[in-house]
Design a protein that fits this description.
homodimer; 568 residues; mainly beta; Pectate Lyase C-like; 15-stranded mixed sheet; 14-stranded mixed sheet; 50 strands; 3% helix
């Protein structure tokens, strides 16, 4: 095994200067070697975008139509290990730390990732009045008021604030019953002015107001720079990595086989009062295969879910020939994705019921532009394929194992599972303001495909989930495929969901809610009442299932009911 | 020769629907054939961007960092002829008509190009008062006043006005002594309000005001969609094409060999009162070779020069190793250009004097990003190469023949020549508000390289050039390399400029101004006084040369003077 040491490329730790060009040269050196290890002597390294490699990537679930500046452009490499030896990597501005594209057997380990100036900002509520509140914003989150907008400033960027998440400094989580009430459209209604240097007043705030002392997280910018973009790669390992921030997701994988995350921690930065980490999901995997193995990881305080695994539905747009369709990628953040390649197997579904009605193979794909693709199939398509159809790739579906992880303090949900691979969710402690586990699928808004076939949720602790109910999910385990019109035959979208030996510590009645599953097994779970949040004294805990088949809840079989409510 | 007819792809002329998908299919068909001709039955065809092929191209001298939607994506093709048979192609929104990339022996002919809604707008001055003027904007140039800005609206775009060019409806040219006085920074000072539907008042206009009855051209948007982008191609012919508008240049060629334009007309649209054509240069060629042959073309009323031929200077940024430099592309519209490839010959110059001091070959090029390139050369570089150095590619320099063309009515200059190939400018009639011919070169602002070595300007008529003097050039023939500090040895940047048998019909004294040329031959020209524009009664015509060597002006030899003024 050959060692390449960063010190041989003119870079010492703790210099404070830009190590980007040295990394570029070291990677070029590694390309000449067999199974190299690139070693960083322990210390702090800084990376700016100025000399970073620029590429256009359509990174799924990020904002498109932009080029990215990449510090570690790992493209077409095999067998490289990057060992940070406990170093801290500090990024500046719009910089994407790692791209692994067309790689095999790559490992990145033993390092910390943070930004000098994060894209998120934070302030404390110091005054609350009728329909208005004042926030003190510390000097390390510089801002301006421009055209009556609150605009945050960073290294090479200026971005208007687009929303606020209210955090409880005691629980370090979104405040009880807060949710997105100051985000998106609600944020846009607020009036902003500076009342004194570092103090900003928000007025026209409506009836729900933040609490004195709350920390507010200000969201701005687009999803530009995930920590790791893993694309068309096999056998990727990320180990012992602490990620304090990214301008996007922590890890986003696409069309990659076998991804392993061990002690990959999206984690608050100690020594600061920051209550945020990454500005979107901690991890997210689109059309992967093999196994996604996530073990011993902490996912806290990111601005979206800890993990989401899914495929993509393209929709029918126009029939061009007997065997050829013009298909559309609908969601803006999915545009440009390579959904199908020749030889891959596809399944057509009916958009309203999500029920499949035809399968075949892809013969050729011509991407016209990120939105429209001309796809030719290996046979004549039946007339049932029409404007009500969507289509998914069934050649790519990962198994997923999430074990001994902790998820807490983030905005939104916990683990979002839409993959037909085998799934194990075991030994985790999940404490999320929305659903701890969400099993959805829809072909009309998010276009995230992948009916589950075999999922085991076992030995987990669900601790005070759904603190922002009904926002972000209606039960600790929320099985909610977005079916507009159930199948007339009674067929189900999902199958075989086992929920066993878990502990629910809950202040909230809904343990499991679900619909359209053939095979639900809820057994041997322990339910404890939590006193941490207010709840009705006489509350019972419930499992609610609708349009499901082959249901067993705690040894009671419910073979055919349209609506099953089990109370504890 | 095989004919592919558009009517076989579901498109009839004059249908009014989008022919883009049919063109895509027809091009795919052509790829299967030997030397095909794609024929359009005569009529009108429409093209929208929605289903057009999208690619990222760094198109030189256009705005970068964007993807383009391309109607005719001619990529890697050979021997295709597209014959419009006199058809009219109407484009909609941000659509780039033709890309020829990596092609050989391609011909496009017999067609007209226009836009349903051009990116330029036009209105008439109907009132002039103290520091303010009113403009009537017809309904076919829809606009809004947004945040006190005049914003024009088109198909899929809304763009603030960025400047005004004042046109004289009698001469159909920029008004005498107008220039850019209402453009760029001067425009930004104007206050705008609507005084009645379709009438906009501009106030705070300073002392120079437009004339009652003038037509004003409103510029907006970026340089997005040239008519033809010819990249990495050989033997391209454009024949009998009338181009009434583009959102960018008419033709932009890069790294291409042998480009022929015959009866390629950038031309006002008859039947309208439009006084504009393309929104930037009619033709522009960067690092081409072989011959650029422009014959019998009309270039009128485009918003920049009729033709510009040049290379690019990259500048020294940092020495990385004995043989390796970090080089920079400085001008924003040059970013991303492929300036050097391995094996090509480069010349280093001193930025202030433009004098060369070292030549060598390129060994490897690694484009880090559109701004910075790591370039390794075939030998150790001398210490004289430093922050004062720029470098050009001397393996690419086109010959240029411009014959029997007419240039008139446009904003800015005429023919801009910076190429070391052999150049003939013959038999043209040039009537431009700036210099008719500009021979420049600079390494500090535009970074356009290419000292001329052999240029013959013969049998042309220069009719009333420099109507906007001193803006856009100080003589009909303006030889003005931007030398900050002349070479101490007296060496010259340009060489061998012959100006003979031309007719200057001029109201303006300066026929030729020049500096830093070794070999200027001005002979047998006819100079006539024009009465069309006001000029002093006692005016003499002048040829002014500075820091030139080997000068012959009308059989009088001027061997060594630092400043030569010849009066007629």
């Amino acid at each position: 095994m050959s060692i390449v040491n960063m010190k041989d490329f003119g870079v010492e730790p703790d210099q404070g200067s830009d190590a980007t060009l040295a990394v570029f040269a070291a990677i070029e050196k590694c390309k000449e070697l067999e199974r190299p290890t690139l070693v960083f002597p322990k210390g702090t390294y800084h990376f700016w975008p100025e000399y970073a490699v620029e590429r256009q990537y359509f990174i799924p679930n990020h904002d498109q139509n932009k080029n990215r500046r990449i510090t570690f452009p790992l493209i077409g490499m095999k067998g490289l290990t990057i060992d940070g030896r406990g170093s801290e990597f500090i990024f500046h501005g719009l910089t994407l730390p790692f791209v692994l594209d067309g790689c095999q057997e790559m490992t990145v380990k033993n390092l910390t990732i943070d930004w000098e100036r994060p894209m998120l900002s934070q302030g404390q509520v110091i005054g609350v009045a009728n329909q208005s509140f004042d926030v003190e914003i510390p000097w390390d989150y510089p801002y301006d008021i421009v055209d009556r907008q609150l605009v945050f400033k960073g290294e090479g960027w200026q971005e208007p604030c687009k929303g606020i998440i209210e955090m409880d400094p005691l629980t370090k989580s979104p405040l009880f019953q807060s949710g997105d009430y100051l985000n998106y459209g609600n944020y846009a209604k607020l009036h902003v002015k500076e009342v004194s240097p570092g103090v900003v007043r928000f007025s026209e705030a409506g009836s729900q107001l933040p609490k004195l002392g709350s920390q507010l997280i200000f969201q701005c910018g687009e999803r530009d720079c995930p920590g790791f973009f893993i694309n068309n790669s096999t056998d990727t390992q990320l180990m012992a990595i602490d990620m304090h921030h990214t301008i996007g997701m922590g890890v986003i994988g696409q069309r990659s086989e076998n991804i392993s995350l061990q002690s990959f921690n999206v984690k608050l930065r100690e020594g600061t009062n920051r209550l945020f980490t990454t500005s979107a999901d901690a991890t997210h995997f689109v059309y992967c295969r093999g196994i996604i193995d996530i073990e011993g990881c902490l996912f806290e305080n990111q601005m979206d879910d800890p993990c989401n695994v899914h495929g993509i539905y393209m929709t029918f747009f126009k029939r061009i020939a007997e065997d050829t369709l013009l298909l559309r990628l609908n969601h803006k953040q999915q545009r440009g994705a390579e959904v199908f390649l020749p030889g891959e197997r596809v399944r057509f579904i009916q958009k309203q019921s999500l029920m499949p009605h035809f399968e075949t193979l892809v013969k050729s794909v011509r991407c016209l532009n990120p939105e429209f693709y001309l796809v030719t199939f290996d046979r004549k398509l039946p007339n049932s394929i029409d404007l009500h159809s969507a289509v998914e790739n069934v050649s790519w579906a990962a198994d997923l194992r999430i074990r001994n992880c902790i998820a807490r303090g983030n905005r939104a949900r916990g683990f979002l599972i839409t993959t037909s691979g085998k799934v194990w969710i075991e030994g985790n402690t999940i404490s999320t303001p929305g659903a701890a586990i969400k099993i959805s699928g829809d072909a009309n808004y998010w276009f995230e495909s992948g009916a589950v076939q075999d999922i085991t949720i076992r030995n987990n602790v669900f601790q005070d989930c759904n603190t922002c109910f009904p926002e972000w999910g209606s039960a600790a385990i929320d099985i909610d495929p977005e079916i507009q019109k159930p199948d007339s035959q009674g067929d189900c979208y999902h199958a075989n969901i086992i929920i066993e030996n878990n502990t629910f510590i809950a202040f909230h009645p809904y343990l499991v809610k679900g619909q359209s599953v053939n095979g639900v097994f809820v057994r041997n779970n322990v339910v404890k009442r939590s006193e941490r949040y207010p709840s009705p004294k006489q509350m019972t805990f419930e499992v609610i299932l609708k349009n499901c088949k082959n249901v067993i809840v705690d040894h009671i079989k419910y073979p055919s009911e349209p609506l099953i409510i089990v109370k504890y």
